[in-house]
Amino acid sequence: MISRDQWRAFIDSPAVEWTIFVVGLLLLFVVAPLVGALPGPGGILVAGLGLAMVLKTSMWAKRRYVRFKRWKPKAGGWTDWALRRKSYQRRRDLEKQRQAEPAEEPVERTGSN
Hints:
By secondary structure, this protein is an all-alpha fold. It has one domain. It has 6 helices and no strands.
C-alpha cells in the first residue's frame, strides 16, 4: 500500500506534473470540443476535468485564473464550486457565519438645533 507522503512525492515529481499538464491541455482543447459536439453535457465535464488538471500543475494558469476571478467574481465563484476548491468552501462558511450573526441596529441620532 502506498502512503500519502509517497503519493504526494510521486505527484510532485516533474515528469508526472508535466504529464498531468499535457493531458489536461489535451482534454481541454482537443477532447472537450469533440465530446461537446455530441448531445449531452459531456463536453463541459471533460473541459472541467482538463481545467482542473492544468490549474493543479501550472502557476501561469493559476495566476490567469485569479485574474479572471477578480474580473468576474460571480463566474469565479461558480468555477471554484465546480473545481471543489477549498477557498470556495472557506468563503461560503464565512458568509454563512456573517448571515447568522445578528446585525446591529443603527442608532438614530436626533439633531438638536
